[in-house]
Amino acid sequence: MISRRCLYLRPAEPITAGLYGEIMIDDSGTPTRLDAWRRNNPCPFRTWTTANGGCVVQFGYFRVFYGRCHGCDAVVTTRRNIRAYKKGPTRLGRWPSYCRECSRRRAEEHDRGAKERMRRKRAEQRAFRDEQYRARGWELPKPRGRNAYRDGAHLEGG
């Protein structure tokens, strides 16, 4: 009895198929269906649009993203290698929304804002702590570290 695979495929022969290189041969010595498909379609590609308004083109083992920066309207491109993801989904995270300059600028703005937010949070924590100490009648702790020298606490008999 001849299997369906043998009817579908030609005999095994060394074949080079476009971007994929040598066709894989399974244990029985015949190419798999995927290899036959790759032989018949040597340079296939897919395209789709993303949620942030860009376009992805997949060919070979690469995905290339083309889109517009949301900050300055410049072209944003990214290439991802998906060769290692042979089985299962190849979700490798979000595609970029900003160009490198806008991303760097936004990160710096966030860092500056984080420094200010942390300063306010620590001031609120110290005020709450001091209020609790005063309510219990305890002595406030002496300042330590870099802030100890701001108000001259190091000069008070200590």
Structure characterization notes:
The structure is a single chain. The protein is an alpha+beta fold and 158 residues long. It folds into 3 domains: 1-43, no CATH class; 45-98, no CATH class; 102-148, no CATH class. Helix content is 32%, strand content 15%. The protein contains 3 helices and 4 strands. The protein has helices at 4-8, 33-40, 100-136, and strands spanning 45-49, 55-59, 62-68, 75-81. A 4-stranded antiparallel sheet has the order 1-2-3-4, with no helix packed on it. The longest helix has 37 residues, at 100-136. The protein is elongated. The model is unreliable at 1-20 (pLDDT under 50).
Blueprint (SSEs and pairs):
Blueprint: H1 4-8, H2 33-40, E1 45-49, E2 55-59, E3 62-68, E4 75-81, H3 100-136
Antiparallel strand pairs: 1-2, 2-3, 3-4
Helix content: 25-40%
Structural class: alpha+beta
Number of helices: 3
Largest sheet: 4 strands, antiparallel
What is the count of structural domains? Answer: 3
Chain-averaged pLDDT = 77
Instruction: Specify the overall morphology.
Output: elongated
The unreliable regions are 1-20
- Please report the distance between the alpha carbons of the first and last residues: 98 Å
